[in-house]
Amino acid sequence: MKFPLEIFEDQKNKDKLEELLKEGLCDNCLGRQFGMLGHGMTNKERGEILREFAGKKESETCKLCGNFFKGQIDKVANDISKKLGGMEYETFLIGSIPSDEVARKQDELWEKFGIDNVEPIKAEINREVGKRVEKLAGKSFSLKNPDVTAVIDMKKNELRLMVRSLFVGGGYKKLVRGIPQSKWVCLKCGGKGCVNCEGMGQLYPTSVQEIAEKPLLKATGAKKSKFSAAGREDIDARCLDWRPFVLELIRPLKRKIDLKKLEKQVNKSKKVQVKGLKVVADKGVVRNLKATKADKTYLAEVKFANKVDLKKLKEIRKFTKEPILQKTPIRVVHRRADICRKRAVRSITYQVVDDKTVMFKIRGESGLYIKELIYGDEGRTTPNVAAVIGNKVKKISLDVIKIWTK
Ligand SMILES: [Zn+2]
Ligand SMILES: [Zn+2]
After folding, report:
1. Catalytic status, residue 234
2. What is the pTM of this model?
């Protein structure tokens, strides 16, 4: 522990110290003005050394921090560790927002004396409170990806906790038609319940998200979640292969959860199944997931209005030889840009079920609109099955049977 007192052989530095000592600072605040000098010591120790060197006593009340480091700091650390006591975490970080008064005083000093070797007050508060909370709570201070960040807001005179979300990844199957992937909140009432949504606040009674999240919300004490997946099937389509997804549990109180058990609980559902649940790192996983471009194979049972012309039906094989041009489907064009895209059909085979019904098996590039490929969307998708065989589509029952993730 050594402070380079030799810097005061330089008259300029000596004058600076003399003047600083007149500012009425506590040892911490004095030491911090030289915070980048000397190793292995606290600012308080720096301050003590400097004051001893200059033969001056410490001021009663610090004009910069208002004696935060002498009095309030222990109470703040106590309050934080109490507040953290209600949740499960391993690592934490402290953040702070100085009051306007403190910020002004700090700026004033910096203008007068320059900022060489100075450490900002925020940094010292965060570190010193952190040390105390480490001791009180027996947890680790961590700058990298802490489970929870306690913010000391001196402007508003409050303590806030920012809790890192818990991300759980896995795969899901949707075994029934008629439920959306994520919660579909009623736009008319924003979820409060109205005539439009028959008082439910949402347009469908349940969703893949709600079925998957329910036991996890309960186990973690999180109030809500965000659901992301590698693409999505239509509401009326089933998904019979495991589709990768990530559930972000927001503000969890618990992090150590038995995912095997929770998986079983989700899988009591007859509508949705999940597998391979595991805690995943963070938002990066969600980004990758959303960027995943996987081919999909579909089974589509299609009922036509009239008897199917089997000779013409053979012509659909040419779909693999040319790009499919798709203008944004009419059913979604109200919420998406009206563009034209090219997508590939990798393979297409079929089986005739009866004279008006055909089962198609189609592998398409990511983003291919399958229904539109079949019924044509009033000519907005070309080529399309309906046009090629000169028939009208009455009903399509669609299943995703394979998601070609690598
Ligand atoms: Zn002070
Ligand atoms: Zn509503």
Report:
1. yes
2. 0.85
